[in-house]
Amino acid sequence: MKKKFSLLFLACLFVFALAGCGAKEGSTSVSGKKITVGTDASFPPFESMSPTGDPEGFDIDLIKAIAETQNIEVQVKHTGWDAMMAGLEDGSVDVGIAGITITDDRKKSFDFTTPYFTAKQVILMKKDAPAVNKVADLKGKKIGVQSGTTGQFLVEEHLGKGYSGLKGFEEVAGAIEDMKNGRIDAVVADNAVVKKFMEQLKLDNVNIIEDTSAKQEQYGIAVKKGNKELLDKLNKGLTAVKENGKYDEIYNKYLGR
């Protein structure tokens, strides 16, 4: 009887220990954990590479400020656009932030925070080029876009998928360089990014054309579909930085008023 009791007692202890471990694991929250943030650091002023080789910019400061309010440690990595999106799906990246426009198609694969920035696509062309007013006027011209972005989607919407004059680039900078050298006629990209490149590259012989028919876009922070705990934390943090003035501080630092 004593032996049986001892074995039973030990078995119970083992079960309780397992249950305790399971409870501890299940109750572990995002807070206090280190999460991987993927970005495409070729999209100033939202993200670019610093002289030290680390990502910097509006989005980087924002995600760090959000994480701080939620007691989350973040490691930001320049993964590139495609690797960031793939990483969100396979779990190697916890958060994606890179001026990602929230679209119905993307919401099928990812969950997004509430919007944190409003953007619009614009056309960049040389001043001596024939005047245009909207993307549809670019028919017959060579147009550069960053591949996989809403710039590409807008051109395809107006000129058709498979439009022969459309050229995709890994980075917006490559498209602008080709336009400068006469290899393409125009670049379609986000307004804040185009303005930043104009400033960085000291472009004074170009015009920015705002297509009034183009819809405004909303940037959001992306997480893997179904990761509600992390999404809720990010949304709480985003609300907090807007209320405590940190968002305005970051906005003024990179975009001014």
Low-confidence stretches: 1-28
Tell how many strands the DSSP assignment holds: 15
Task: Report the biggest beta sheet as strand number plus sense, adding barrel if it closes.
Answer: 5 strands, mixed
Measured distance between first and last alpha carbons: 82 Å
Helix-strand category: alpha/beta
Which strands sit side by side, in order, in the main sheet? 5-1-6-15-7
Fold blueprint:
Elements: H1 2-27, E1 34-39, E2 42-43, E3 47-49, E4 55-56, H2 58-69, E5 73-78, H3 81-90, E6 95-96, E7 110-112, E8 117-119, E9 121-126, E10 143-146, H4 150-159, E11 166-169, H5 172-180, E12 186-190, H6 191-200, E13 206-210, E14 217-219, E15 222-224, H7 228-243, H8 246-254
Parallel strand pairs: 1-5, 1-6, 10-11, 10-12
Antiparallel strand pairs: 2-3, 3-4, 6-15, 7-15, 8-14, 9-12, 9-13
Question: What do you see in this structure?
Answer:
The chain has helices at residues 2-27, 58-69, 81-90, 150-159, 172-180, 191-200, 228-243, 246-254, and strands at residues 34-39, 42-43, 47-49, 55-56, 73-78, 95-96, 110-112, 117-119, 121-126, 143-146, 166-169, 186-190, 206-210, 217-219, 222-224. With 257 residues, the protein is α/β, with parallel strands linked by helices. It has a five-stranded mixed β-sheet, sandwiched between helices. α2 (58-69) packs across α7 and α2 (58-69) runs antiparallel to α8. It starts with a helix and ends with a helix. Mean pLDDT is 89; it is low at 1-28.
